[in-house]
Amino acid sequence: MTLVGGLLLAPIVPVFALVIALLLGLLIPHLDLIARPNQWILPGAAAIIGLGLLLVGTLTSGFDARHRKPNSILYALNADTQKAIWASYDQAPDDWTAQFLGFNAKKGLVTSHLPSASQPLLHSEAPSVELVTPSVEFLDEDMSDGVRTLRMRITAPSQANLLRGICKSCGSASDHAATFSRSLPSTNSPFLNFAPALTNATR
Length: 203
Hints:
Helix content: 10-25%
Strand content: 25-35%
């Protein structure tokens, strides 16, 4: 039952009407002010003050040394193709992001580098860097009640603080995509040199 449906039940209607009447009673002082001579002075003054504050806010808005402009820039490497890109969620390059993107950055989908980025991003080519990638170890496979289950172990490289996976299957209409994300322990500890392995079952 929805909230509106519950409020319209016969036993609830009188209580609901009483609450509305009490709330409307809070407007009585305001009605008294409007009924007095020169009743438009108060709302007129409030409107002028409000417009003045909007004007001041508009004229003083912007970015400066105390109010920094938020920016985004990220580096993405496709380990299969060894091609990398700079990408940004900004609408256009500025003086800071242009040092990575350039002023002629393209906008489009970058799912070949960032599979979870469903929206078009500013991007441009970036130099490829030799990075250690996560290792994937196939453990076993099971078929039960028409559902195929693959079990694998994914191990993050050293110094990684987040491991995210997107598994896309294709074939019958019952197949689907599964995702997982796990934050890894901080690698600042001198006793932790490698991130722990993550075992995940995907159906």
